[in-house]
Amino acid sequence: xxxxxxxxxxxxxxxxxxxxxxxxxxxxxxxxxxxxxxxxxxxxxxxxxxxxxxxxxxxxxxxxxxxx
Length: 68
Hints:
Elements: H1 2-31, H2 35-66
C-alpha cells in the first residue's frame, strides 16, 4: 500500500513540475513579445494534453469493459 501511495504522490508531483516548466516557458516567450511561439506552445500543450487524456480514458474503459 505504501508503494502505491509513493507512486501516486511521485506522479502528481512530477506532473506538477512539468506543468510549471511549461507555464514558465510560455510566459517567458510572451514576456519577450514572442506572441506566436508563446501562444502556439500553449495551444499545442493544451490540445495535446486533452487528446492524451481522452486516449487514456478510452484505454482504461476498454480494459475495464473487456475484462468483465
